[in-house]
Amino acid sequence: MAIESNRVRADVIEATEFPDLSQRYAVSAVPKTVVNDRIEILGARPESAFVREVLRAVESRPEERSP
Amino acid sequence: MALPMISQQDRDYIRDHFAQNLRGDVTLELYTEKKSPILIPGREECQYCEETQQLLEEVSELSDRISLVVHDVRANPEVMAENGVTEVPTLVYRGANRGSLRFLGIPAGNEFRNLIDGIVEVGNGESGLSDETRQALAALKEELHLRVFVTPT
Q1: What is the band of A61 on the pLDDT scale with cuts at 50, 70, 90?
Q2: Distance of CA A67 to the CA centre of its chain
Q3: DSSP A17
Q4: I want to staple B106 with a disulfide (CB 3.0 to 4.6 A). Which of B29, B48, B79, B93 is the partner?
């Protein structure tokens, strides 16, 4: 996804070497994907399912209502 | 000189693989901590920095299209902050990728295959994604920051 889009930053993190990071993101099993610190995806997924879940992180949220 | 990390057989295979599949240039930018000549008690050493550098040196030798740039954060600590790097070793892939792609830690075990594949995909600028995914990405209005936690085994 990072290859395709300039809006994507992808960091692949080898969990055992960075216990602080793994702890911060409560990583107990891999693969674990965290998107925008909001959405977690545990385990692997086929591409379309993965993308669907990833995009939940940027779905429009109920914004402040405009007057 | 250290023993090679990649076997001769694997090197030959990977060299051929790059020759046949890698069509563009890739720079592997490694942020690492070189070993201090002085042992400082209480100071944590980067466990896999040296091996990561050696591994990437060996890989970059397998194609003229691959360059390796090494930043020693011990000698130049400011380069970390300048580039948003917070851990060592961090590998930044630079090629035809439109977004940012990094690997934190040593790309060993399963991740070694992903390193080789990543180099080819970055070099060719081909994500291999479906049209549906590409359309969804094109419609993105915000940044997506993915952190993918993996292990070598």
Answers
A1: low
A2: 34
A3: G
A4: B48
Mutation target to probe the B interface, by most B beta carbons within 10 A, among A1, A21, A30, A54 is A1
Distance CA A42, CA A48 (A): 15
ipTM: 0.92
Q: Output the pLDDT for position A65.
A: 45
Q: Is residue A7 part of a domain?
A: no
Q: How far apart are CA A48 and CA B133, in angstroms?
A: 7
Does residue A63 surpass a pLDDT of 70?
no
The reply to whether B54 touches chain A by the CB within 8 Å rule is no
Residues of A in contact with B121 (CB under 8 A): 3
Q: Which tokens sit at B101?
A: 């792609």
Domain with residue A27: its CATH number is 3.40.30.10
Print the domain residue range for A44: 15-58
pTM of the model: 0.92
What is the overall mean pLDDT for chain B? Answer: 94
What is the Cα B60 distance to its own chain's centre? 10
A20 in a structural domain: yes
